[in-house]
Amino acid sequence: MNQLRPRGRELLEQARLERTPDAATRARVFEALMATEAVMAAVEAAANPKASRPLVGLGKWLLLAALVGVLASALYLAGHVGAKPEPPANLPDRPSR
Amino acid sequence: MSEAPETFRHLYNEHFAFVWRFAAHRGVPAVRLEEAVREVFVVVHRRLADLDNRSALRTWLAGLTRNVIVNHLRRYGDEALRGPLDGHEPAQVSPFDDLGPLEELGKMSPGQLVDVILRKMTGRQREAFILTEMEGFAAPDASEALGVNETTLGARLSDARQLYNSVSALLRAERFWVTRDGVEP
After folding, report:
1. Angstrom distance (rounded) from CA A47 to CA A50
2. Distance in angstroms (rounded) separating the CA atoms of residues B43 and A44
3. Same domain (yes/no): B47, B111
4. How far apart are CA B134 and CA A10, in angstroms?
5. Which terminal residue of chain B has fewer beta carbons within 10 Å of its beta carbon, N or C?
6. How many CB atoms lie within 10 A of CB B44?
7. A9, A19, A34 ranked by CB distance to B4: nearest
8. Across the interface, do B25 and A19 touch by the CB < 8 Å criterion?
9. In contact, B123 and B155? CB cutoff 8 Å
10. Does residue B51 sit in the same domain as residue B100?
11. ipTM of model
């Protein structure tokens, strides 16, 4: 594979140094970053974990029970919808005229 | 305002310069550099909890930065700044076209000269070149960050190096003549 020439590499290193931001820029961008809505929301969520905590313990079991209930109801309905009711066994014959 | 989590602050301090340089060399104009870098770190902040392997942090960050920057450039329609024939390989344009007026070359800083050369590369060549040659990524890490295999990365890098050597030699020669003829004060 071809390689960079020494003079070219030197130019690249100078360009890299030129494009490296200083500490003041780093601090300024960080302040602006912390002021953005998305980051503030995430920071507050991290500071107050109860508000965004996933379901645990009882909540998880209740959700599971509800899902099982819905599934059982769906299966029941699928098995019974569209089935004709059976006629009564002993209907009296209609009297003929 | 709450304090930012310490891990995020540490990551920011450690990698801010890298993200800034990557965005600048990838073609984000200076006027929007801060905005693009902030976008990267907003995504980093959101996804930091998903990162379980700290040793691969720099690779993860490079991939994320690359994606955010490409979306940023696309959103603002910076076609010219992404390099010629972006997304098409290999570039069919001559590296010696449109270098600009000779007087301008004489006044350019190293960073501006490198930008002239980087603009001759396709976006994909440029990313491979920045990560490996400018930021010192090993080939496996660069290929993982860019989502390509090492063979593809090697091909892009080879084209990019060839182009860089050709154009930088030409620029040096042009600058020599410009200086010699007294165009540059």
Report:
1. 9
2. 16
3. no
4. 11
5. C
6. 23
7. A34
8. yes
9. no
10. no
11. 0.78
Tokens of B147: 């989502």
Give the residue numbers spanning the domain of B34: 1-82
Interchain CB distance below 8 Å, B13 and A15: no
Pair B109, B30 in one domain? no
pLDDT digits (tens, 9 = 90+) for B15-57: 999 999 999 999 999 999 999 999 999 999 888 877 766 658 8
Residue B106 is which amino acid?
G
Is B176 an 8 Å CB contact of chain A? no
CB-CB under 8 Å, B1 with A40:
yes
Tell me which amino acid residue B87 is.
G
Q: At what angle do helices B33-47 and B57-76 cross, to 10 degrees?
A: 130
Chain A residues closer than 8 Å to B13 by CB: 26
pTM of the shown model: 0.70
